[in-house]
Structure formats: structure tokens, C-alpha cells
Amino acid sequence: MINFKIMFTYVRAQAAAIIGSIADFLVSIIFVHVFHCWYIQGNAGGNIIGSVVQFILSRNWVFKATNVNVYLQIVKYVLFWSGNILLQAAGVYFFMHYFHPGFILSKIITSVIIGLSYNYLIQKKFVFA
């Protein structure tokens, strides 16, 4: 039996992730290609902005968790995104260092891997539970 509520929550979570990723990518690209920051710094700056966008969307729209203490959610989210930023930096570095596909492709590959394996479950079971 298909649970449509869970399915719609998952779809909303993926939409919030895409919107957060767009913000992340825009800031990262601006930092790296306009301001000539090192790609790890640009990646981290983008991750921070994207995480703020995704937190707001996830709290208010995806998981509708506005009845829970926002400060506790922020602490949990910072823990979650600290792991995300470390995984993103490691992934981008790995692809750039060993395969040289370019910064943007490295970031796309890393983002997809982390998005499919880490983000949704940690947010659902830990941050907005």
C-alpha cells in the first residue's frame, strides 16, 4: 500500500533540497568564478547559504515542524549540516583531486550522492522529528 502522505513529504523534501541546492550553487559559483576564492571555500559558503534556505523550507513547508522549539531545531540542523559540509568538501576535493572534472561537475556529483544517501533521513528522523 502506498502511503501518499509519506510520498508527498518526500517530494516536498526533494523540492526544498533542489531550491537549497540552487542557492548553494549560485553562491558557490559566484565565490569561485567571480571572487576567485579557493573551490573549498566557495563550496562551504554556498553550503551555508543553501542550508539556511533549506532549513526554512523544511521547517515550514516539508515537515511542518513549527510547533517544535526552533532553537533546538537549529542546533540539530547545525549538527546535521556540519556533517553535510564536511561530506561536501571531501567529495568535491576527491573528485577535483583524482578525476579533474571541474568544480561544478564535482559539486553536482557530490551533491547528488549526499542528497540520496544522507540528507532526507537525517532531517526526517533527527532534525524535524
Walkthrough of the structure:
- The chain is mostly helical and 129 residues long.
- It has four helices and no strands.
- Helix 1 packs antiparallel against helix 2 (39-62), helix 1 packs antiparallel against helix 4 and helix 2 runs antiparallel to helix 3 (70-98).
- It starts with a helix and ends with a helix.
Relevant terms:
single chain, 129 residues, mainly alpha, 4 helices, globular
Q: Number of DSSP helices?
A: 4
Helix content: over 70%
Computed over alpha carbons, the radius of gyration is 15 Å
What percentage of the residues does DSSP assign to strands (E)?
under 5%
- Termini separation comes to 23 Å
Name the average pLDDT: 91
Q: In terms of structural class, how would the helical and strand content be classed?
A: mainly alpha
Question: Stretches where pLDDT falls below 50 for ≥5 residues?
Answer: none
Overall number of strands: 0
Overall 3D shape: globular
The ordered H/E elements are: HHHH
Largest sheet: none
Topology:
Elements: H1 4-34, H2 39-62, H3 70-98, H4 103-127
Helix pairs in contact: 1-2, 1-4, 2-3, 3-4
Q: Brief description of this entry?
A:
This protein is an all-alpha fold and 129 residues long. Helix content is 84%, strand content 0%. It has helices at residues 4-34, 39-62, 70-98, 103-127.
